[in-house]
Structures are given as structure tokens and as C-alpha cells.
Specification:
The chain has about 475 residues and is mostly beta strands. The protein has a domain of about 230 residues. About 5% of the residues lie in helices and about 45% in strands. It is built from three helices and 27 strands. Strands 1, 3, 4, 5, 6, 7, 8, 9, 10, 12, 13, 14 and 15 form a 13-stranded antiparallel sheet that branches. The longest helix has 11 residues. This is Related to SVF1 - protein with a potential role in cell survival pathways.
């Protein structure tokens, strides 16, 4: 949650908001690459800490669903927020739906370094590794090509972490599109000198193992996870008005290791397509509902599907805010759709009682990195969330986070006045079924059948930042 304080710098509007409304001032990564070129291989530099200044918030996040059904996530947050010295936090969350046990810890890190200093344990020159007085995260690759992060942390007298996330060499990590601009959406009329940017890089699956020591008791950390390295090169309240994140993980009898992940955000009214309009076709296609500034919002949706431990599709879609629910997204049917929305009296938002996630992308040829647009891979799931209010009626609720409640009262009042936002994060963990559709061209495990119903676990976040 570090980075919200960056709203305090500057005006409520954005640097790009004064650009002429007759031209777009947002370049979505989902429009920068053709559907046959969505897969971007991860280079070493993609996972290195940039530790940038200005209003940049950078995170590394590891998620895992443990073998006993519990959920755990660790995150390191490097936030410059316009200050002379960056703020670095490490957070940890654990939730066991069977026992109701929840652990939440956030600590301010001191003496953060990436890469670790020369006398630190492990590789000293690798900027994918980091170290602080409270934790060490070491990136290593074994002789079989498996990449791994080993996390050791002492977050409190009664909470220690010692576990490893391993990406098998046969499961490709990815960003959307190859090259230095792969994965990057740019804010501002000039992509060469943007107001800001957003980028995500993923390990769609990872195996977790090790232990979480809580109050002297060891919790087995063996499970199915994923990893994401994300950067917001701009104040977060100007990046998006809402987010959706889905992380489905399963081990299926017929298809082996299956995963479907999705990251989606909708721009604020400060950034979007040109005033006036209907959908614009082409490399910067966008459409949306007119806002007070004259901008029309855009929704950027990226994701991937893993079958039998192999990355079989990377997905990308752009959608206009004005588009009707039954109108398809541009280039792909991928989207997150909030259903049966109702007022949550805790937050004031119209929150969904269920969410439908749809993935639609070309079959990936791992050897060439190209997608076959004539051979589509599809996946869909609908998760029943129950009522958002009261919280006791929400199915699988891990947390409903009032972001402003996490910061001091005086700061909170200033944020409300300056930014005019009221951010809430809903987090849920539920068993669900993913329907996977494989094309005739697919030649891997499960190729005999076109459609498979895969039972697994979904961790999701739907976030509201502004109306």
C-alpha cells in the first residue's frame, strides 16, 4: 500500500490533463502489439530493481496457495513518492479459510540495497536480488535453468519467513510484447517523453516450498504460486480508477498444472482517447464514456493461460468505457466483468456479487514466440462472491482494505481533499472451476478433448480508487 502518499505531491489533476482533448493522451500496451506478437520473453533487466525516483512505486510480489488451502503473499514495495529518500516496506499476509487464522504484517525496511552489498550472502551483483536489515531476497538459476527467489525475513519476534519460489524452466515468464517497451502503457500525448507509465512482468506459475514461522509454529509453505514485478511510474490515483486481478491455480488430472492470470486497469478521466468519441480503430484504438475533462476512459486487460505446465497463450484486449456489456472487447474477448452489483455500505461503492473472467488469445508457439491467431485458446470462470455487505456475507473474503485507514489521520484528510479518492481493495480466495477451450492445433496433454473443466483455487482483487 506504500505509494498512496504520493498523491500529496502536485495538484489533483495530472500533467497530461491539460493536453488538447482532440488527441489521445494514453498509449495502451494492448494496442502496441499485434495479436500474433503478444508474448514478450523476460530479459534479465526486466526483473531487476530500478529503484527509480520521482513518483515511482515499484513492487515485487509472490503469491501462493498452500497445499492445505491456505493463502500467503509477500511483497516488497519501493516507493520514491517525490521524497529525497525512498520508502521501502515488506508486507506479508496469510489466511487459512479452514481455521480462520489471519496474519498481516507490514514493516518499514532499513538499509535496503539492490543488488545486495559485496559482503552479503549469495550473489552480490544481481539486481534481481535485494537485501535489507529485515529481509534478504536472493535470485538464483540452477544448472537445469530453473529460476528461484529465496526469501528469508524476520518481520517480528513471532513471524519469520524462509521459503523459495521456483519457476520451472519449461514454464515461460512473460511481459506483453517483446523489447524494451514490452509490457509498458504510457500516459501522456508523447510516448517519447511520457507523464508516466505502467508495466507488469510475470511468472505465471511458481512452486513454493519452505516454512512460515508464526508464534513459534511452523507452517509448511509448499504450494502453487506466481510472481509479478510491477512498476507504476506515476502517482497511483492518476494511473487508474479501478483494477482487477485474478490468479487461478490448479493441478488437474488430465491437463496437469493449469494457471490463468489476469491484470486489468481502467484509466481515470484525465487519460484516454480523444474527445467525442466512438471507438477508434488502429494501433491506438480506444473508446469510453465522456468525462468532465473530455477524455474517454480505456480499460487495458492482459493475461495468460498455462496448460500442462506450459504457457499456451498470452492475452490482451482494449475496451472503451462506453462499451456496452454485451459489446466485445477490441481484438480479443478478454475481460473482467462485475455482475450483480450492489451497494456496499462499508465503502460506498457498487460492488459485484460475482465476477466473470474471460481469457481469449492465440495459441503460442513457444519455439518461435509467435501466436497463431487462427487457433484460439479460451478460458472462463465465474466466481460467486456473495454480498459485499455485511462482510460476513462475502464468500471467501480475505480482506476489505480501506487504504486511507492505513495512513495517519492528518495525511488521510489531505489525501481526501487533494485527490478526491476513496480507495478500497477487496481480496477473496475461493474454490472455482475454470473452463478451458483448446484448439485443434494444440498438441499437448489433453489434446483429445477441446473443452476441459478444471477445478482449482482463485485469489482475486477488485480495487476501486475513484468513482
Amino acid at each position: 500500500m506504500s505509494g498512496w502518499g504520493s498523491w500529496l505531491k502536485g495538484e489533483a489533476g495530472s500533467a497530461g490533463a491539460d493536453a488538447t482533448a482532440s488527441a489521445p493522451n494514453f498509449q495502451a500496451v494492448t494496442d502496441a502489439f499485434q495479436q500474433d506478437a503478444l508474448y514478450g520473453p523476460l530479459e534479465k533487466s526486466d526483473l531487476e530493481w530500478t529503484c527509480a525516483g520521482g513518483f515511482t512505486t515499484e513492487t515485487q510480489t509472490w503469491y501462493t496457495v498452500l497445499d492445505d488451502g491456505a493463502f500467503a503473499t509477500s511483497q516488497i514495495i519501493h516507493s520514491a513518492v517525490g521524497l529525497w529518500y525512498p520508502q521501502v516496506q515488506m508486507t506479508f499476509k496469510y489466511f487459512n479459510p479452514k481455521t480462520g487464522v489471519k496474519i498481516w504484517k507490514s514493516v518499514n525496511a532499513s538499509k535496503f540495497a539492490a543488488p545486495p552489498t559485496a559482503n552479503a550472502a549469495g550473489p552480490s551483483g544481481d539486481k534481481r536480488s535485494s537485501k535489507a536489515e529485515q529481509f534478504t531476497v536472493l535470485f538464483q538459476t540452477d544448472d537445469k535453468g530453473n529460476d528461484a527467489y529465496t526469501i528469508t525475513a524476520n518481520l517480528d519476534a513471532d513471524l519469520q519467513l524462509s521459503y523459495t519460489f521456483t519457476r520451472p524452466s519449461e514454464t515461460l515468464g512473460w511481459k506483453l510484447g517483446a523489447g524494451p517497451k514490452g509490457g509498458m502503457s504510457f500516459f501522456g500525448a508523447n510516448a517519447g517523453s511520457p507523464d508516466g507509465y505502467v508495466v507488469h512482468r510475470f511468472w505465471p506459475i511458481a512452486m513454493s516450498q519452505g516454512h512460515i514461522i508464526a508464534k513459534g509454529q511452523a507452517i509448511d509453505a509448499k504450494g502453487q504460486g506466481m510472481f509479478v514485478h510491477a512498476i507504476q511510474g506515476m502517482r497511483p490515483n492518476l494511473v487508474a480508477s479501478k483494477w482487477n486481478f485474478a490468479n487461478f491455480q490448479a493441478d488437474d488430472d488430465k491437463l496437469g498444472r493449469v494457471a490463468a492470470i489476469m491484470m486489468e486497469f481502467t484509466t481515470t478521466s484525465d487519460y484516454g482517447s480523444a474527445k467525442g468519441g466512438s471507438q477508434i480503430q488502429g494501433a491506438q484504438a480506444s473508446s469510453g464514456a465522456p468525462a468532465a475533462s473530455g477524455r474517454e476512459t480505456m480499460t487495458v486487460n492482459i493475461g495468460s493461460i498455462v496448460v500442462d505446465g506450459k504457457l499456451v497463450s498470452v492475452t490482451a484486449a482494449t475496451r472503451g468505457g462506453k462499451a456496452a456489456d454485451d459489446e466485445p472487447s477490441q481484438r480479443s474477448g478478454s475481460r473482467a466483468r462485475h455482475l450483480d452489483k450492489t451497494l456496499d455500505q462499508d465503502t460506498g461503492y457498487q460492488a459485484p456479487q460475482s465476477i466473470r473472467y474471460t481469457w481469449d488469445g492465440p495459441l503460442l508457439d513457444a519455439a518461435s514466440g509467435k501466436g497463431d491467431v487462427a487457433a484460439k485458446v479460451g478460458a472462463e470462470l465465474t466466481v460467486d462472491l456473495g454480498k459485499p455487505y455485511p462482510s460476513s456475507e462475502t464468500h471467501g473474503l480475505v480482506d476489505k482494505v480501506d487504504v486511507l485507514a492505513e495512513i495517519p489521520y492528518v495525511v488521510r484528510k489531505v489525501v481526501n481533499v487533494v485527490a478526491g479518492t476513496k480507495p478500497y481493495i477487496y481480496q477473496t480466495l475461493n474454490p472455482t472451476t475454470l473452463s478451458v477451450q483448446l484448439p485443434e492445433q494444440y498438441g499437448g496433454r489433453g489434446k483429445e478433448e477441446r473443452t476441459h473443466e478444471v477445478k482449482g483455487t482463485l485469489f482475486e482483487e477488485h480495487t476501486f480508487i475513484s468513482a
